[in-house]
Specification:
Length: 171
Amino acid sequence: MQVILWVIGVVTLLMVAGLVITRQLVHAAFWLFAVLMAVAAWMVMSGALFVAISQIIVYVGGILILIVFGVMLTNRGLLSLPEPHMPGAWSGWLTGIAATILLGGMAVLTDWGSILHARTLPTPTGMTNPELVGTHLLSDWLLPFELAGILLLVALVGAAYVARPSRADQP
């Protein structure tokens, strides 16, 4: 089981490298698809079924498809991404190096032994992980769940309002 997790992890890192290295926008979208699917596979192998299903439905099924359609419909797929040696690219490199140091430090300082040997919370008899999450979402967490949906709807309407052309631009 651990060997499979390590293999999935290494393959995911290779796909992330492909995502970062490519200069074509369409290729980057497909590399992102592969990375998100590999992360979902890692979650399935780790036993986090609900998180894996949510990953596939929300990110792969929704957001990534919107990115692909946006690229295809706006003809941006023919454009190349900026080269890393452009002026101002130092801020991106600096941010990446700082994030790597921060995440590496967190990984080194984390007590992985206690996390890996921790006991899982008991679940009610006959309920699986997605059933338990669904039961809690629609009972204990219904109000925050609905408020998050309303907030996303307001953000969508605001984005549509901001993106529409102004009246001065219309003939």
